Amino acid sequence: MTVAFAVNPETLRGHIATTLGALARRIDLRLGEITVTVASTDYLVAATMLRDARGCQFEQLIDLCGVDYSDYREGGWDGQRYCVVSHLLSVSLNQRVRLKVFAPDDDLPVVDSINGIWSAANWFEREAFDLYGIVFEGHDDLRRILTDYGFIGHPFRKDFPVSGHVEMRYDPERKRVIYQPVSIEPREITPRIIREDNYGGINGGKK
Predict the structure, then answer these.
(1) Residue 1 reports pLDDT greater than 60
(2) Whether residue 21 has pLDDT greater than 80
(3) Domain range spanning residue 100?
(4) How many C-beta atoms lie closer than 10 Å to residue 46's C-beta?
(5) What's the number of domains the chain is made of?
(6) Which of 3-12, 105-114, 171-180 has the lowest mean pLDDT?
(7) What CATH number is given to the structural domain containing 121?
(8) With contact defined as beta carbons under 8 Å apart, do 126 and 142 qualify?
(9) Nearest to 85 by CA among 106, 108, 69
């Protein structure tokens, strides 16, 4: 069995830059990890090239998730709000890369589905749709995967209330599950500060 040794990150960065050319908006190398950012219009082409090109050969997608940047750096973010981040692995060359694409419309975030390039994207994209409301165009089974069909909103968005919008419970009179407005009243919990010198016998009973 032949074991492939990972190339130097700088060398890999060069391979990716040569392969993608102008399709790569940014190629960042930090902490030994490479992150490539592409435009939504170039997403499918760039992903296919990363899978097939010599020196890249990222045959596997090992993770995909959504990101909501609206509160990034305490609200100091001024770019597009929703991003899809994929982690790609080359088994044959023993190397990895992170691929990022931003949805151009914050009100209706849409990016192409890469399920046709890596079939492992199927459930990952459904999860990002469910939790962030990112629509993956071309996905043939885009439906919720973690929340139920009656769920309102997308719970990983930064503006989603912690308590949610509705709650679900079983109604014994109707003999079925029903939805109703959240009954939890929002409140602020302030930690109790104890200032007594001898609270609970501290300091050996001395004052």
Answers:
(1) no
(2) yes
(3) 9-152
(4) 24
(5) 1
(6) 3-12
(7) 3.30.460.80
(8) yes
(9) 69
Which residues, 6+ apart, have CB-to-CB distance to 108 below 8 Å? 135
Asked if the structure places residue 80 within a domain, the reply is yes
DSSP state of 51: H
**121 in any annotated domain:** yes
Strand order in the sheet with 95-102: 24-30, 33-38, 95-102, 82-90, 60-68
pLDDT tens digit sequence for 174-199:
998 887 877 766 666 676 666 666 66
Mean pLDDT of 13-22: 95
| Nearest-angstrom CA–CA distance, 36 and 95 | 14
Specify the long-range contacts of residues 141-145, CB closer than 8 Å, at least 24 apart. 142/113
Residue 25 main-chain phi, psi, to 5 deg? -75, -40
Is 36 a member of any domain? yes
CA–CA–CA angle 156, 159, 165 (5° rounding) = 80
Confirm whether 163 is domain-assigned: no
Q: Is the pTM of the predicted complex or chain greater than 0.70?
A: yes
Spatial neighbors of 23 by CB under 8 A, at least 6 apart, are 38, 39, 42, 45, 46, 49
Q: What is the mean pLDDT of residues 126-149?
A: 95
**What is the C-alpha to C-alpha distance for residues 51 and 91, in angstroms, rounded to an integer?**
11
> What type of residue sits at position 119?
S
